[in-house]
Amino acid sequence: MKFADLHLHTYFSDGTFSPEELVGHGVRLGFAALSLTDHDSVEGCARMAEVCEASGITFIPGTELTAEHEDTELHILGYFVDTQNQKLLTEIARFQVVRQNRIREMVARLNELNMPLKAEAVFALANCKSPGRPHVARALVKAGLVANSDEAFRRFLKKNRPAWVPKAKISAFEAIELVHQAGGLAIMAHPGLNRTDDVIPALVDSSLDGLECFHTKHSTTMTGRYLEIADKFHLLVTGGSDCHGFSKGKPLIGRIKLPYEHVEKLFAAKKRADEKHSSPTPK
Ligand code: AMP
Ligand code: ZN
Ligand code: FE
Ligand code: FE
Questions:
Q1: Which residues contact 77 (CB under 8 A, 6 or more apart)?
Q2: Which residues hold their Cβ within 5 A of ligand 2, which is an ion?
Q3: CA 37 – ligand 3 centroid, Å
Q4: Is the pLDDT of residue 283 over 60?
Q5: Closest ligand to Cα 190
Q6: Residue 280 has pLDDT above 70, yes or no
Q7: H helix runs in the chain, sequence order
Q8: Model confidence at 5, in pLDDT bands (50, 70, 90)?
Q9: What value does the mean pLDDT of the chain take?
Q10: Is it the case that residue 281 has pLDDT exceeding 80?
């Protein structure tokens, strides 16, 4: 049976693998399709596409955008986005600046707490345009200021802990529209992780295309519930491991094996969206 992992991160955001390493694991585990969904970045997609093609794996370019709806944070996965789309690239560049400024703010708070970390140390470790809290956690470990990333999140970086800084986010509606205008399909990531069930109907009204039903952090019961919700609202079904390499302990790739029928439905939906886009508007 063919299967896919459509939620993966590389070192172009807060994962530790290169696109090549990730595809290497994909080959080893027998995946027929992969997508790269780095946070606020599409930078790794070109390389990932190339290696996937050489390895006979179907590749779907993607990204994971941080958004909010009525104070609820949620993540929107954009699949099949045109990675050269000007508006998408402009907005992503803006999100990346927000991320970089947030790192400086978090470091300033840590300094106030007598944790002598430098923002430059975080940027050097992150070595990417989309730095996030996992990089701050790893920099704290590297500086010998905490024992491990878990401790860093628990003591300082988790929501409402003293070095946590809220991230300025776009609205979920804008995120969906941004993905759509770049030719992509917009999927709500890991609803069970963000506890965003209540938000689903509103996003369906604003053209959400699908729901990530299969995710490492979803229990079997949760997956069942989201499959029912997807069915009820006629949404596409996706799934992925959310592998960050060694950023959060062991690599998660291989934990989710999305049945390939869902990938075929995604391709069919992309085709329909393209046809709708290119058909002349009725007079
Ligand atoms: P950011 O985008 O900077 O807010 O960071 C989000 C990243 O941090 C995601 O990859 C999360 O999985 C990770 N993260 C969030 N909370 C925790 C936690 N308590 N422990 C470890 N990683 C976390
Ligand atoms: Zn991440
Ligand atoms: Fe996420
Ligand atoms: Fe993710």
A1: 6, 7, 37, 62, 63, 64, 65, 186, 187, 188, 189, 212, 238
A2: 14
A3: 9
A4: no
A5: 3
A6: no
A7: 19-28, 45-55, 86-112, 119-126, 133-142, 149-152, 172-181, 191-194, 200-205, 220-232, 260-278
A8: very high
A9: 96
A10: no
Q: Which two tokens stand for residue 225?
A: 């519930």
DSSP readout, 190-229? Answer: -HHHHT-GGGHHHHHHTT--EEEEEETT--HHHHHHHHHH
Q: Is 215 in the pocket of ligand 1 (CB under 6 A)?
A: no
Torsion region of 227: left, alpha or beta (phi above 0 gives left; psi -120 to 50 gives alpha): alpha
Distance 190 CA to ligand 3 centre (A): 7
- The token duo for 173 is 């509606």
How many angstroms separate the CA atoms of 49 and 127, rounded?
A: 22
Which are the contacts of 86, defined by CB distance < 8 A and separation ≥ 6? none
Q: 137-184 pLDDT, tens per residue?
A: 999 999 999 999 999 999 999 999 999 999 889 999 999 999 999 999
- How confident is residue 195, by pLDDT bands cut at 50, 70 and 90? confident
Residue with tokens 């998660």: 252
Q: In this structure, are residues 103 and 135 in contact, taking their beta carbons and an 8 Å threshold?
A: yes
